[in-house]
Queue: 2 jobs
Job 1
Amino acid sequence: MAQGAELTLDVRRLVGRWSLRAAGHAGRFTFLAVDMVRGLTEWRIYLPRAFAQAMSIGYGSLFIVLLVAGFTGAVTSLQAGYQFTGSVPLYIYGAVIGESVILELGPVLTGLILAGRIGARYAAELGTMRVTEQIDALESLGRSPVSHLILPRVLAGMVMIPALTMFANVTGFLSGWLAAKSSIGITNADFIFGARYYFRPFDLWYSMIKAGFFAGAVTMIPCYIGYNTQQGAEGVGRATTLAVVAASVTILLLDTLLAKLLLNH
Amino acid sequence: MIELRKVSKRFADHVVLDQVDLTVEDGQTVALLGPSGVGKSVLLKHIIGLIKPDKGEVLVDGLHVAALKRAALAELRTKIGYVFQNGALFDSMDVAENIRLGITDQTCSEDDSYCTNRVTECLRLVNLPPEVGLKYPGELSGGMRKRVGIARAIAGKPKYLLYDEPTSGLDPMNADVIDALIERLQEELGVTSVVVSHDVRGSFRVADRVALLWQAKIRAIGTPEEILASRDHAVQQFLERDLEMAVIQSESEQGAT
């Protein structure tokens, strides 16, 4: 009996502790977001830095994003060929590949890749700056770490991630088309007819809206985690891992939520 | 003037500062001594508003630091130069860019020729040649990094200078160089300074007054002579331990030569 009561108490304490911690994170994240909005007036500080960040993350991520999109488009096409050959008209392949890439694979895979590439980088950079007191030094000089460090990174991501997603969509579509031609012998006319028949302009908007939300997750969450890093090198390692996991999980949650809100209303 | 009134701070169950009172008059240099981990850096960070007290007040120029709004705090910080223990230099920027970031006056910071001259002047003040401006923090020795940290802190012509362990991790010769530099800067710039240290010899050299932080409280405060003459056992114990270390160091140096 007594053991059961102790266990219940422990579970309650654990839940209480977790709730407090979650509330603390939510509060600090909100403050950071408010600081970012306030910092938007300091464009002379963040714009040049955002440009440098955009060049770095955009150009640096292009190869891996195109590589993954290219292979994904091709594999989608080959698997569709395996599943549907003989059971549906060939032009359907154009629709399946186009819609799969634009609505789901392009934005989600790009988001997940960039969560690893950009998210880890942001968390590690800011975490290292935190534990080596560089962020404190910036504050001690009367300068805002949000305008100098966070806004440039977030804005660069908000511009470059949707752009990279668009490149991924085009690459995935083209590689899927080529793979379909070589594997099931579909003609260009059939493929284009299928792709256009089921295409709605909203699909592209949906892809971009998703990419915008994913960009927010890929940039803001790692920046928040890196900015609040503690306890030296181990803390930086922990922050980096946590940033990638948290950003990736958020992407998957947002993916579901946006599909429900925008496609199934 | 810097004033701490009954400042208390705790981290979880650990009381770091307990009703600490400390006043630093304009133009004065106060050395804050104490063993490692006693809370000296925490006290220093209260002065610049990087840490807020749980209780008590911190006043700089008559302003309540913890109660200041963001813009007012940023404005106050432009009057304070902070030298971090490990330099805290921005490692993605070269030395000149680091020092340039210390020029806090917005009009000046946008004037390229002023900034270039000021960077060279700050490097000269800390006995470094202008070529060092092109190096990155990773290419500098520990002593040079400390000096660049000081150069950045003085670039904005501050009224107050806060030094966090300026000689820690340095060999005695380099520590002497930094102490001499602090002394010279006091004379040339006439700033009000707080030097946090556990190095008794260096602190006595640069300070007008010395305070000993011991078990979360200011245990003793006075001129170096008064502190040396103190009969308080904690003060005696701290001084003796440090002087023993100085003897061991000088013996090992003699042995090496």
Job 2
Amino acid sequence: MVVPLPYVLGLSVALFTLGAIGVLIRRNILIILMCLEMMLNAVNLAFIGFADHFTAVDGQMFVFFVLTVAAAEVAVGLALVVAIYRRRATVYVDDLNILKW
Amino acid sequence: MIEYVWLIPVFPLVGFIINGLLGKRLSKELVGTIGATMVGLSFALTLAVFYEYVNLPVDARPVEVPVYTWIASGAFKASVAFLVDPLSLIMMLVVSGISFLIHIYSVGYMHDDPGFPRFFAYLNFFVFFMLTLVGANNFLMMFVGWEGVGLCSYLLIGYWYEKQSASDAGKKAFVVNRIGDFGFLLGIFLIFWTFNTINFREVFALAAKYPVGSGIITAITLFLFVGATGKSAQIPLYTWLPDAMEGPTPVSALIHAATMVTAGVYMVARCSALYTLAPLSMMVVAIIGALTAIFAASMGMAQFDIKRVLAYSTVSQLGYMFLACGVGAFTAGIFHLMTHAFFKALLFLGAGSISHAVAGELDMRKMGDLKKHIPITYWTFMIATLALCGIFPFAGFFSKDEILFHALVDGHLVYWGIATAAAFITAFYMFRAVFMVFYGESRVDPHVAHHIHESPRIMTIPLMLLAVGSAFAGLVGIPIIQGGHKFKEFLAPSIIYSAGHHEAHYPISFEVGLMLFSMLVAFAGIYTAYRMYLRRPELPEIIAQKYRLAYDLIYHKYYVDEIYDMAVVEPIKDTSTFLWTGVDNRVVDGAVNGTAGLVAWLSAHFRKLETGFLQNYALAVVLGVALIVGYLVGL
């Protein structure tokens, strides 16, 4: 059975919003990175929904791109988190506010 | 030799470069030798050029020696080139000859001064510029020399710059000269604007086409004369010269008596072709000259500093020279310039020798009875004084009488009256100085009294040579006797009477009568000084008491310095202070500081946006995206 497009998009929007809120309000960088992944995957979900709806493969190809980029991003992001922890012994973004006036 | 005339100023320039750059590493003997030798070489070369020039056929004169083209821009052309003619030759001979003797004297006089190399470097530099000034063939090169001697004058007046009064005097000389130079420069601009050339001979040839009394020529000559009043210390710009006596005595002798201050007279004589076209300017020159002659002489009467007496005397004698030029007797002016260079340089060097004898004292009230202690200085000083007073047969007699004669026959009875009165005062104040210094009771400080000594030979020999000049230099211009006035004959080709000129002839008895009269006036001055300062030394004080007001006026130099201070210097200072604190500090600085302040104030508020919290930035990004997306979907 085919899930109707509005349902897919509704889930995607819900996931994206949750992720965005998580990015904005959580203090732990690891959680923020996870929320970012959630936003990316919400977008992926929207791509797949549209690809199915329009019966075009372009959307599915984009999903693979996004997955690749996300993997790379996580690798770099986690490396940064490790580096920050080694230096500052914290992973809370509230403690990393020296880049200001 | 004439084609090597450019070497004449180059020798002292080489001396300046060597002494200026390496002087501190060389011994004093070497520095002095280099300084004097370079000027001596100039003098020798000038003599050689002079000798060759007088042997040239008349139609080959005058000679222009181009060195190179300095500026060529459109119609404007200024070259470094020398004009060899009787006038420039006489000036070069006077400048290099007197400078040579003064350099030798300075080796002795400045011997214990720590700045010895600096002194000789400046002195050489001065001679370089002075020879450039008198050798130039165009107005611009003359102006270069004109400014250069002004610079050296400033450097040498303020030579002892640790002394406040000396550095102030240097500044004053420089600033007052600037006023004159400004006029001179305007004159040169006008000349180029009118004639399209600045070469002397071309200008004078073109000027002949203008009618007598033409406005533009009058303007040019008046502007040039403003320059002359500054450089030659005439009313109203004479105030710097008495103060210039703060410099070392050889400097006073060289720059402020014999050479630089005569540059104005030289310039007026050089421009005789222009001045004779402007009767109004001639009258101004004569009036200023006559007024300066009597005015400065009267101030010399009440001075006690021997160098200041001589300074006022110089101003007064320069007035005579301008008076001569003003009545059209340019040769008489230059003749007096030449004889004056000898005896005034001698008087100053003599004053230096006197102060050397009494431990640097210059106040005549602390001298007296020095005659037997320093006989050479006394005799040479006496010869120079007699020459200055115009006593036959010393040099000043011939030149001064010629001026008096021309003031009467070419000028006006008033000029002659003023000049004769000034001659009386001159004789009076010079013998006042002689009596106060060499005769009467010794008033020397007892600590100094038993150290009084004659100067070393290196100083007395130049004195004696100058004394020979002061005694005999006048013989080149013997009046009355036919063909006796060699000086005038030689100089005549350089003096151009554009408006026509006729040499008036008067009976010999008239000329002789005038001479006897002026001698009588001089003797009257001497006798008055004798009565007041030798026979009854208490008399001056009594007279001063009796005519308190007049005496105070003269003693304080008519308060001219004070008036200038009040009328010119203070208003300029006030305006400058206003421009500084009001305009510069508030308006200019205010605009700059205000801009910075505004930016700082805005930043103080805007920078609060940069919190450093990652999530604030993220929120801004999200809101931005929301806005853009909202706009795109047309919400």
